[in-house]
Amino acid sequence: MPDSSPLPDRISRLKEAIAGVVGARHLVTDPADLAPHLADQRGLYTGRTPFLVRPGSSAEVAEVVRLCAEARVPVVPQGGNTGLCGGATPDQSGAELLLCLGRLNRIRALDADNFTITVEAGCILSDVQRAAAEADRLFPLSLGAEGSCQIGGNLATNAGGVQVLRYGNARDLTLGLEVVLPDGQRWDGLRGLRKDNTGYDLKHLFIGAEGSLGVITAAVLKLYARPREVVTALLALPDPAAAVQVLGRARRATGEAVTSFELMPRIGLEMAVTHVEGCTDPLAQAHPWYALIELYGGQEQGQLGQALEAMLAEAFEAGLVSDAAIAQNAQQAAAFWRLREGLVEAQKHEGGSIKHDVSVPVSKVPDFIAAAAAEAQRRLPGIRPVPFGHVGDGNIHFNLSQPPGMDRQAFLALWGEMSTAVHDIVAGFDGSFSAEHGVGRLKVEEAVRLKPAVEIEMMRRVKRAFDPHGLMNPGKVVTPEA
């Protein structure tokens, strides 16, 4: 029977019951210890919680969720808290319990012959990468927060990163899941099968659902052959249209060996060189645009490097590439990647930044960038567009830095207006207003505004079916009909 007593009484009894499950030392109530968990990565949201619980096994997660369901207390799952849309932050009511999964950090199995690894949700992404490498395998999910983000959060948000072009999003790297449902039942779907045509593929309901349908506690992930040859190059380009053409040429010339193709504008590179230690301009002259390309191959004889050089020579003759630097060793390759990573960090030093994580078909990337930049500059003369990102899969981080000298808060107050304008342009190019960061709390209203009504209703039906009392990460991804 659900508990219908006053909320403070329910929370008090719930706390005592959960302490009996996980141990009192794994309940956190001290304000200083709670503080890092109550704000999102960007500082857009802060919340409150009666307490934070750290279960140590999937069985403990199941019992905690069951107790919360019985007490009608909402649950907010949280991994590494590196998300960018407020999806793991409780609200201000103080009624939502924080469920942190960091203690579920075991690698349960690695089957090298089946090219799979079974990991718990609290495993740090870089630790999964390392375990795969030690078995002479590759786990290709790679993103800036990989040293602190957790696999459960990666799956809950369907994380992308820099190698989606070749290996796909987190969804594409997942074969099976273990999930605790909103009523506390545990579904064991940890199957390492690449073919299993026995009905609905239930795991895909939970990947990208941001904990709104249940709590992912473990996963079977795909591994790949470790590359024997890695070729990294920084290309100078006249415009984004040339980038799309060069990408197509590179894919054809190397037999789809391109793993990453990252677009960077000159303004972003200048920001990185100015503000971020270790960032230097590798080319003799300034160019309007740059692309960072990386290729993986299975041999060590240098064929990929030769194929890339031949392709670049042809692209140079066609006016698509103005200059290029091919990394001669791992240190030079790391320096190129440092520029790409530093571009993100450097924007913080340039004042306010209004950020967009959008995607359009690869062929439409150049026109989208031109249209969105023109509209932003029309609305606010002096604004500085910094579009960059994974042009190989059509995902552009269309960020807008404030005009020099403008008040930061006054600029950030324009976030809603600018985002509406950018997202409308994205929709006109048949794109998505959230490519890899998810919906969280930040984009719930945009989802209702931009997604077809029938699609929102289907999502609501799924939410009601799994979570009829609205206790799993409420207010995120999709909200009940007003």
TrEMBL record:
Keywords: FAD, Flavoprotein. Gene3D superfamilies: 3.30.465.10, 3.30.70.2190, 3.30.70.2740, Uridine Diphospho-n-acetylenolpyruvylglucosamine Reductase, domain 2, Vanillyl-alcohol Oxidase, Chain A, domain 4. One of its GO terms (biological process) is respiratory electron transport chain. It comes from the Eukaryota. Residues 45-226 form the FAD-binding PCMH-type domain. This is D2HGDH protein. The keyword Flavoprotein applies. Its cofactor is FAD. InterPro entries: FAD-bd_oxidored_4_C (IPR004113), FAD-bd_PCMH (IPR016166), FAD-bd_PCMH-like_sf (IPR036318), FAD-bd_PCMH_sub1 (IPR016167), FAD-bd_PCMH_sub2 (IPR016169), FAD-linked_Oxase-like_C (IPR016164), FAD-oxidored/transferase_4 (IPR051264), Oxid_FAD_bind_N (IPR006094). Belongs to the FAD-binding oxidoreductase/transferase type 4 family. The keyword Cytoplasm does not apply. GO terms for molecular function: catalytic activity; FAD binding.
